[in-house]
Amino acid sequence: MDRKLPMEELCGMTLLVLGIGAIGGEIARLAKCIGMNVAGVNRSGKDAAGADRIYSISHLSKILPEADFVVSVLPITVETSILQP
Question: What is the pTM for the complete model shown?
Fold first, then answer.
């Protein structure tokens, strides 16, 4: 049995941070340190530190296919319930 996991460079890949507030902003900052492109989603769509691009939650279906990795730090609210199965 081959137990080796495939490896890829993270540099140049796109990280989508859902909920780019205090915690999401720190994740974005660290991702930028290793050369990742960072897109963020927040309630307002207004700029947030650490992200190259920011979108509002209503644009999620547009940006999601562009992401190589997704990190969700969204609180469970009525607004974010569209993301639950």
Answer: 0.81
Bridge partner residues of 54 (DSSP): 40
Whose CA is closest to 32, among 4, 51, 53? 51
Q: Which of 62, 61, 54, 47 is nearest to 17 (CA)?
A: 54
Instruction: For the beta carbon of residue 85, count every other beta carbon within 10 angstroms.
Output: 2
**What pLDDT is recorded for position 12?**
96
Question: Is residue 24 a contact partner of residue 71, using CB atoms and an 8 Å limit?
Answer: yes
CB 28 within 8 A of CB 54: no
Is the pLDDT reported for residue 80 higher than 80? no
